[in-house]
Write a structure and sequence with these properties.
This protein has 139 residues and is mainly β. Helices cover 9% and strands 45% of the residues.
Amino acid sequence: MDKNKKKECFVFKAFDQYLGIRPRYIYRVVDEIKITPVPLVSECYLGLIYYRGELFDVLQAGRLMGKVELSAENGRIILLKWGGKKIGLIPEKIVGLTWISGEGEGEEKYGTDECPLRFIEPDDIWDMVNGFSDGFDKI
């Protein structure tokens, strides 16, 4: 792919990093949804939400990536769906849909300030969650 071509990307901030994900994985961005807590899980796992007939596991994106102190601009949740899997992420900040130059792999620059942007795939998030031998209690 030509490096000068623009590519659509959904950008959010977690753990003081700007992360980009392909828009095809974004099911919805929702707010004001009650999260049902689940006992005996890690702090990054906030619980479950029921949205339009489907259950989503809800994760605090910053805590998932190792940040202890968190700030969130609001209660928005990014709902991701892919390959039969569903996750809700609460980021520190949602930038939204933007166009970036490049391949959409690894680290890119975006915006007028040329902020570093790291691309992630939903399976990367899933692997972070499932990469621990005892599940969520090790995150």
